[in-house]
Specification:
342 residues; 60s Ribosomal Protein L30, Chain: A; 5-stranded mixed beta sheet
Length: 342
Amino acid sequence: MPLARARRAQRPIDYWPGFVDALTTMLLVITFLLSVFMLAQFFLAREVSGKDTVLNKLNKQIAELTAQLALAQTNRADAQNTIASLTATLSEEKQKNGELQGAISLAGAGAGSADQRLTAAEQQLASEKQISAQALAQIDILNQQIGALRRQLAALDDALSASESRDKESQAKIADLGSRLNIALAQKVQELSRYRSDFFGRLRQILGDRPDIRTVGDRFVFQSEVLFETGKAQLNPDGKTELDKLADAVVELNKEIPPEIPWVLRVDGHTDKRPMQSSEFHSNWDLSAARAIAVVQYLVSKGVPADRLVAAAFGEFQPIDPADSDDAYAKNRRIELKLTEK
């Protein structure tokens, strides 16, 4: 016995059975928890699926109710239109009924109110008599107004006669003043004609007896070739020399003519009728204007007052000789000077 106890005391402690028991217990617990979790997932999935089914049913019911609501609204609009139509028909029927009732009442009143109509006629006759009296009173007032207007017209006629008399006197005075003015103008024209004659005579003496510078009526004429090259508007040296003499004569003339005589020296540019070949000018009118302006500007540069000069252009539209010949073309190409009133 002591020996057996000694052997048992020397045997080591075996833990493995306890560990196996603990591990087995743990596995059982985990298995239980997994089973519970799976059951919970199952019931949860079934509940969610049931909720989806219910939700789909609710959505379907909502769609059906929406369609029923739209249909009800349409039926309501139709019913309102029908009610409006029936109301209008009822109003028309009421109006017709009222008209019939009025006609019936009028017929009844007409059948039993002859005396009333007679009384009304007498009242109307009295009213018309009153209106007639008022109209007669108004006619009397209008006659009085017409008399006053006639008196006013007579006064206006007298005033008009007096005005016509004064107008005749004024016309006579105006005619007298016009006659005096015409006489004064004629005197000025005659005086200007005398200065023009003296001026042209002086020019003929200064410029000499040349065939290309001549007097034609009341104008002094330079042939264009004296002053310009063919197709040009720049004064040539010989032309400037001739214009110097002319400028001196005009300056002297300005000193002699009284300031109250409104005179100007008009410089007219003329060309022949052949078409313009120069790129500088678009037409004969442009050339004649440029030449007249060139003469005026040169005379101003030589002391002639600018307010005593006028530049005019006539192109080929005022020919001296209408023939188609070189001689006629030469006569028509010219610069004319005319001493005239403003």
